[in-house]
Amino acid sequence: MEKLPKVALPFIIGAIILVVVLAKSAVTIDSGEAGVLFETFGDGVVIDEPPMGEGFHIVAPWNKVYIYEVRQQELFEKMKVLSSNGLEIQIDASAWYEPVYKDLGNLHQSLGQNYLQRVIMPSIRSAARSVVGRYTPEQLYSSKRDAIQDEIFEETKKILDKQYVQLNEVLVRDVTLPITIKEAIERKLKQEQESLEYEFRLVTAAKEAEKVIIEAEGKAQSNRILSASLTDKILQDKGIEATVKLSESPNSKIIVIGSGDSGMPIILGNQ
What we know:
Layout: H1 3-25, E1 26-29, E2 33-39, E3 44-45, E4 55-58, E5 64-69, E6 73-82, E7 88-99, H2 104-110, H3 115-132, H4 137-142, H5 145-160, E8 165-176, H6 179-229, H7 232-247, E9 253-256, E10 266-270
Antiparallel strand pairs: 1-4, 2-3, 2-5, 6-7, 7-8, 9-10
Helix pairs in contact: 3-5
């Protein structure tokens, strides 16, 4: 019984060493992450094989695994840039990005885990300065926000496509102008709106006047045509037609034929 612990001691020590080795060799990669393997006694960063996926992995204890988040991430940026006329503009923007999964080894080798600070932030700031510098504060405030958003995205994307990073979207959330410039632009826009409204009223009034003139000219022309066509003979015929219709009416009346002007009948009462 006394020899049993001495015999079992090497096995116990071996088991302890095995547990320690396994603990140092075991790597668990969570959901939305991937691992880049660094072989200490090999060629360093493994770039010719796919990254290590989610789950449990055993690696040699002398190697290292660097974990990267491969889901889409968001960067919020407040940037002060200059407009085309040199005024300082503040832009609040956000960028949606993610590392290119298949190039994760290249990303780690060239930029490392702090690639956000090394390449993404400088790229979006540079693109914002370049794009905003093409526009006036008035354009930025009123009609060009969507345009600068698209242009910042395109220029940033060109840079990041060469850096193993995928840019999905750039959103310009707010454009802040100096208060004096903002108030001046708002006054100008208000004046332009009032001017447009006044011009609309003038055009409407002119159209209404034109309509009245056309209607008056039409009535005058109609009267001239009617007056020219009403001869004495036509009036007598109309009078005879009216007399016949009246004579056929059940109401009592006295009709004197040929006693009116131009020989027209006269109606002397009815009931």
